[in-house]
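Ligand-bound model needed. magnesium ion.
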Amino acid sequence: MPSDRPASPLSSPLSSSTPANDEFASNAFPHALGDIHFRMLVDAVQDYAIFMLDPDGRVASWNRGAQNIKGYAGQEIIGHHFSVFYTPDDVAAAKPRTELALAASEGHIEDEGWRVRKDGSRFWANVTITAIHAPDGTLRGFAKVTRDMTDRLRLIELQHASALSLHVQSAREDERTRIARELHDDLGQQLVALKMDVAALGQTADDSKTARQPIEQTIALQAQIDSIIASARRIAGGLRPPMLDDLGLGAATEWLAEEFRNRYRLAVTVRNEVDQLVLSPTAATAIFRIVQEALTNVTRHAEATRVRVEMRVVQDEFRMHIEDNGKGTTLDRSRSKQNFGLLGMQERVRQLHGQATFDSAPGDGFRIDISLPVDAVKANQGGNQGIATPPYR
Ligand SMILES: Nc1ncnc2c1ncn2[C@@H]1O[C@H](COP(=O)(O)OP(=O)(O)O)[C@@H](O)[C@H]1O
Ligand SMILES: [Mg+2]
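Prediction:
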């Protein structure tokens, strides 16, 4: 039965009779298993670790790919048990031994999982182990082919993360739309009804001296209700401006600019030259959210007095430029990882196959440039659910 661990650590003298040297071709494959040309071919493979194990699981040959992937030179590893390639958990679970036993009984096994390099780092491996038998049926050893799939795994993870973020974004947008509607329609109407009731109450009271105080109170109440209605509208608008769906990006952006002018005394100018372009709802929402985040950043970080938002179409590209005259910043890549505003902009732009660039320096304001292929942002031809961008007033 093969053991899972070499009797001694890797520094022990090698038990293999194979000469230890760097010339792969001379030691990569035991002579009995193939001719010189085949051994040279195997040795030359860079992207796959191809090596032999003896029946007990000790490494008997090594190729260039094995050195690339696992980090050991041939002379370091030949003669050692192959369980050093497995994680401690897998070794504790007797996985190396189980895989060899399975390969011996089934002839061949395939596995994917984490394996360990010489330096202790892990890689995601695709592994096949094939049993090699002598003509008389005795087990001669195993041929093992290992491929490093880490990059592919990362790519799949990235694709999943991107799909997930798209899903989260659209779910969040739906939720905002729903809450905005409830605030505006349900709460808003109830408040209007309440205000009318209070007004009626004030009118039924006569003008006698004892009634004067309640009348004044109903007037004050009406003013309070008005301000609650205004707050509810403002909150609903912030969640999702109703004009984004009805009047389009241009109107929604202008509304947003007005909000920032009034609330932050910021001179926001919007120049919209994309009135010909009918945007898809996704693109209109994405662009609106980018402007919203950019303006929020100006009020939070810039100490600016002026912001310019420009949208135009140049050839096949929708282009947006947002620029403030504030104190600017040093753009630091590592720091931006913790700030989700700029990252969120980049993610939205990436989903629309476009590009976002940020440019700033201390004392020199902040500039955002977005370019999106028109094909990726325009509403489906013939579809009627597009969002128009009416011209700037
Ligand atoms: N208009 C701006 N002027 C100056 N600095 C800015 C501006 N916009 C963004 N920044 C800087 O970039 C950082 C990242 O912005 P962001 O990703 O939106 O994160 P957050 O707003 O949550 O800090 C901010 O913390 C700020 O330092
Ligand atoms: Mg921000």
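The mean pLDDT is 84.
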